[in-house]
Amino acid sequence: MEGDSSDEFEELIQSGYRYALSLCHRADDAADLIQQACLKILQLKGEVPGRSYLFRTVRNLFIDEWRHRPRRTPVGMNEVISDDRLQVPTHADDVQRQLDIATLLSCLRMEEREVLYLNLVEGYTAEEISALTEQPRGTVLSLLSRGRKRILSRYHAADIMETK
Amino acid sequence: MRNSPEQDVIEFYRTQQLDGSIVDRLRQTQSIARETRRWKQVARWLALAVVLLIAVSVGVAAGVFSTSTVPAQSELAAGSSDGVQVSESNGDFREPEFGPNTNDGSTGNAVEGDLPADRSSTQAYRLVGFRSHGPACPFCRETQQVYQSICESHLSDRVHCEFWDVGSADGRQGAADAGWQSLLDGRAETAFLALATARGEIVKEFKPSEGADSIRIAILDLIQQR
To answer: Using the beta-carbon criterion (under 8 Å), do A14 and B23 form an inter-chain contact?
Structure first.
């Protein structure tokens, strides 16, 4: 029983981390974001009530603090690659590097990445995403469609490059 | 063969994991936060209980105070009215019974008040009134009215009132027994008031024509001076 709740808690935290990753697309920032969100929730509630609550807190925190944060000084490429948890090259290196899915995702806008993650990974419907992100359902659908198109176009390009 | 782009996105995110040490830290933080929250609730309930206890104590104290003060107040009020009665009784004043027999003076019933219990006390005084005729006599009537007015005004606890109808033999005898013989000697028909000590020593005589108020003030002055 204790193990189940522990597993549930870990799964919840991992989901929140992935959602944070979809927002900021940096492993370290995502780890900081999920920790700050958890601390905030635990101070307020004593426990993490649920996934939606965690996602909303992460999102609000990201909007409040992380969006307005001055961008970090560019990290050297070697440093980024040495991070084995997330190898997310910057967009500037796309030309010279093999296009992978992380690069594809980094090319998307934050809003597109967010709705794609919620829809594809978490299985949220457009209605649920609309409620979570407080955007009209049409906007969510538009973001989903546009994100998919972008990934698909670049995906095919990568495929072409691979075949070449 | 590559997967579909959606599948690749899903797999990409599935492979991203937060460091286990961070998860453990968060788990510990959660348990601490739960305990803290529990203790906060306990503290909140305790504070509420203390507040309720204080409120109940104050209520009980207020109830006890009101139940003890209301009877005390009523007792005090009763005591004050009793005081009036006591002063009257202390004054040993008995309303003169001027009945038909007395009014005509034929039966010679004496009208007298009770004598003070302790006549030896120098602090006590006696206000005595005498009359020789019934109410038909204007002087006797005036004397009686002034006497009643003074006695009913609760002059002083130290003054005891008595009134004698000396027009009859019984009344004159009663007055003599009360110690007023020396005062009445040589007076065949009289109507006057006198202030005397408890032993019967005359302090001052008053004519009814002086009026009840002036006599009352004079009596008080005399008592104060002595």
So the answer is: yes
Give helix then strand counts, H and E, for chain A.
8, 0
Token match 């739960």: residue?
B34
Chain B residue numbers with beta carbons less than 8 Å from the beta carbon of A31 are: 18-19, 22
Q: Which residues of B53-73 are buried (b: 16+ CB within 10 A; e: fewer)?
A: eeeeeeeeeeeeeeeeeeeee
**Over its length of 226 residues, how does chain B's per-residue pLDDT go in tens digits?**
556 778 888 888 888 888 889 999 998 888 888 888 889 889 999 999 999 999 999 988 888 777 766 666 666 665 554 444 444 444 444 444 444 444 444 444 444 444 444 444 457 888 888 888 877 888 888 888 888 888 888 777 888 888 888 888 888 888 888 888 888 887 777 788 888 888 888 888 888 888 888 888 888 888 888 7
CA dihedral of residues A56, A60, A61, A64 (deg, nearest 10) = 180
Tokens 């968060």 sit on residue: B26
Contact in structure between B134 and B168 (CB atoms under 8 Å): no
Partner A contacted by B224 (CB < 8 A): no
Residue B226, classed as helix, strand or coil, is: coil
- Quick one: which of B121, B93, B128 has its CA closest to B199? B121
DSSP code for A119: I
Report which of A118, A115, A85 is spatially closest to residue A102, judged by C-alpha positions: A85
pTM: 0.49
d(CA A141, CA A139): 5
Identity of the residue numbered B44: R
B51 to chain A, closest Cα gap in Å: 25
Q: Between B9, B26, B36, which is nearest A120 by CB?
A: B9
Q: Which of A13, A86, A148 sits opposite B26 (nearest CB)?
A: A13
Q: Among candidates A74, A152, A146, A1, which has minimal Cα distance to B5?
A: A152
**Interface contact A6-B37, CB threshold 8 A:** no
Q: Does A155 contact B10 at a Cβ distance shorter than 8 Å? A: no
